[in-house]
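Entry 12.
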Amino acid sequence: MTFASDPATVLPSLALLSHRVRVLPMDAASLVKMPENTILFLDARDDLATAKTLCRLIHASGLSTPIVLVLTEGGFTVVNSQWGIADVVVTTASPAEVEGRLRLVSERGNAPAIASTGSVSESSTTVEDGQIRSGNLIVDTNGYTASLHGRPIDLAYKEFELLKYLVQHPGRVFTRAQLLQEVWGYDYYGGTRTVDVHIRRLRAKLGGEYEHLIGTVRNVGYRFDPPENDKGDAAAQQAAKASSIDDAADTEETAA
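Predicted 3D structure (tokens):
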């Protein structure tokens, strides 16, 4: 991921290895374009601030993509463990060094920085006999029903599919375009505002006390925040107010 007009100059040794390489621009939209089982080389040679922001955004999105920063020697003075990266490499590294770092990173991975970003592990959601359980929320994939605290939630088909998809990936952020593709399918010709409408309907049907379960990440998209204890719910409801403000701002931007 780089701003460079000639990506081959970022880490020249990489071109000499047998790995498949895909070049992406350094922006949030590129996060949804990354295939699974990817190791991300992030070009931080000339813009450390943007690189750090992207590192945090990747973890906030719930992605577990290992990140290897490509640096000049001067960049080592500012990088630390809070960046949440798997490794660093200088732009002049030899092919043998790059291959060795790739092998080590692929073996140990790159765990998300949960403590600093508030991301949620998928272990908080369980699946049994076709029922996805997250706290007191139950999504029955066999009966196409959902309930909260034992109370049925009256959902239309696409509302159910949207909720199911989000609950299956707790803490992970999806863009509107990604949700449109995953829930509505490739052959759907409607715009991404369809997603916003269904998110608002879902929140309304969850009720004011639990609408915070569907969170908004500003300028990125939506995520499912699993229900916690009462104290956690209180904090989450404060976050929900911020989400509502973000939604309103998003609507104004789209209208403009």
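Annotation: Residues 230-255 form the longest helix (26 residues). The CA atoms of residues 177 and 192 lie 6 Å apart.
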